[in-house]
Each structure stands twice: as structure tokens, then as C-alpha cells.
Amino acid sequence: MRLERHILTRLADWKEKASRKPLILQGVRQVGKTWLLKHFGSIYFDDTAYFNFEKQNELAQLFSTTKDPGRIIDNLALVQGKPIVPQKTLIIFDEIQECNDALNSLKYFCEERPDYVIACAGSLLGVAMSRGASFPVGKVDFLDLHPVSFSGFLKASSPELFNFIEQLDKAEPIPDIFFNPLRDKLKMYYICGGMPEAVVRLLDDKDITGTQEVLQGIINSYLLDFSKHVENKDIPKINYIWKSLPSQLAKENKKFIYHAVRPGARARDYENALLWLVNAGLALKINRVTAPSLPLPAYDDLTAFKIYLPDVGILRRLSLLDPVAVSEGNRLFTEFKGALTENFVLASLINQFEGMPNYWKSNNIAEVDFLIQSGNDIIPVEVKSDENIRSKSLSWYRKEYNPAVSIRFSLRNLNFNGGILNIPLFLVDYTKKLLDIVDPGKGGEQ
Fold it and tell me: Of 31, 80, 101, 362, which sees the most CB atoms within 10 A?
């Protein structure tokens, strides 16, 4: 099975840019960066020259002895065993964060030889940069690769259902004949998440045990990264934080608490370990805001935040929640105080809106799960993991701030009533489209 990645179109656009710079494709380990770049090369180029700085340590010498792009290419061609042709060959630098000289060379390729097409992948690039590695600022283009979305999973597993939701043009209830199987497909997605190998194992092989093993293998590879790329004194701290994340999210109040990492743990001792996870892309940090005002980042309360994972499948496996829960009604959605569902929604919102969402809390009166900024509008988002949609917090927020539109994700059907857009969880990837549909300023529903 071939999973279609929408980012392939963006890569094609980058290739044709008149002002094209070397590209850095970012994403967590095993999210599919290497496969995507090789696939991109096979479709859009005559040839691909692939170099991995983690597996081929000796490549670093080719960049430490010269900054001249021509000489570097000549040496790489010798390693490759065939010519590297400008515009015709896609040059892939994988795990480029392992070679700072190679990272710096992108500046000279941008300035002196932009005819060479270079795409780089880095799973721990954020960690390298946080350590002070010099970086070719302004000389590279960036793209982020996220786990396969539910809509991507649906397109691979049920093209008919995917085509149905692609054609939605009104915020009105979905017939049960489509609603029920879409909900069942979402349960399947919660089992594998969006890591490509796990998706393929579940959909192609129908192998839940194998899917479990794939996800555990990915988690083990992250643990290996802790030991390989972290100072010895910080390894236990990162492990403690990583293992605490399911229990942090299982609380009614999901605010991250250092004391929950380990008895006696203090922020000053563990904040660098948490920052490593964030820089590695293995943790998503959502700050609380003191006021729902523009621009949202200006109102960050840096003392209060929540931590989520980049993929719902990884969170489920890390939480040791057995896939058998898929057969137990809505348990898969509601387990851990709805943490899986909140994580699922957040991962989708990041794909659709600029910047990281925030959350909002007014003392002990009300708390809204997420705030997203869409244009000059701040939209409150409430996540419900079942059909029960009662929410005192959202009602309080709406009364206090009178937003034009509020969003509620739940297992209720699609509708727009009284300024509240209720979106079924399986339509989370269409949030931006549905907002446009109901926006009166764009001719949407009143």
C-alpha cells in the first residue's frame, strides 16, 4: 500500500521555485522523511544521490576540508559512483544534524550553486540548534513532515468514505450510513496512529499484534536517541519525563506538573530535559494564555503549560492501552480523561493553523482546551470524547468574550447552531474548511 502524503505537492512546488534554496525537511524519527524524499526524487528527477550522515560518519571529512560547493559535489560523486547533475539529480542529505559542517555548507550552495537541488532531513535538528550549532540562517527553506493524518489514513483504507467527506460543502448532519463507519475508521486510527509503518501494518496486514510491535519499536528508537544524543546526567531525567506523560494527561487538570515526574522533582532540575523532548519534536508544549487577545503568543503564561505527544498511536502504546478497547463502545475515545482524543485533535490543528495553539483558564471558573488564531479571530475549541457535549467552560467563555464562532469536537453529528460549530471527531482535518463554510464574511452559513 502506498500512503499518499499531501506534502509531496509542496515539495514539487519547492522544486519549481525561482528563489529555491536548499530544503530542510523536519520531523520526528520514523515519520517517513527518508522514504518521502527518495519517492520525491524518483518521480521528479532523473536520479537521486543519497547520503546519510548518521550511518556514514566518514562523509563529514568531505565538508570539513573545503567550503567550495564544486569540490564537495565532485567528492560526493566519487562516493556515489556516478555524476551528480545540476537540476537533474536530487541530492539528499539525511540526518544532517550529525554534521555541522554539512549544515553550514548549505549557505554556500544557496549563494554560489543554487542549480544543485539539495533536500535535507533531520529528526533531531532542533536539538542540534539548541546546543549552539551554527546554522545557515536565511539560506534554507523549511518543511515540516507530520504523522499521517486521519484523512490520509481514510483515503488509504476507504476511498469511498474519503471521497464523501471531501465533497462536504455544508455544516449539516451526516447520514448514519456514512457517520457510523467513519467513527469505526477513527477507532482503527487510534490503534495505529499516523506513523507510516504502523499504518501499513494495520491496513495491509490486518495485524494488530504487528502494529503493536511497530509502535513499540518506534518508542524504543526514541529511548535509544536519549542514550545516544543526551548528556549522561540528563538521560534519567528525560526518561522520567517521557514515561510520566500518559499519567500527566490522565489527570482532570492536564497541566504539566514536575512533581508528577518524580517525587521531589523541581522545574530547575528537569526543565532542560523537557526542553530536549520539545526540541526533538517528541513533545508538544501548549502554553496557557492570560487573556484571549491578539496576538496570542504575547499573552503566554510560561509558568503553566500542557505536554502532548506528536502522534495518538504513540501515546496509546506508551499508555499501554490494549487495542481491545476498540470493541468496547467509545472507550478508546474516552480513556485517560479523553487524553487520546485531545492529543488527536491537537495534532490535526497544528497541520491546519499557523503557530502552536494555546489553552485558556480563568482561575478555577472555566478552562477551554485550545485557542486557535485564524486570521484576526481567536476561536475557542472544546474537545469532548463522547456524545456528552455539556460544557460549562465553553458557555462561560462565550458569555465573557462573545466569539463569532466556537468549535466543539465530539462524537455528535455535524451542525452549526447559535455560533457553535460541532464537528465530529472524524472531521477534525476539515476544521479550517468548515470554518470557511460557516463564516458569514465569506458568504457562509448564518
Answer: 31
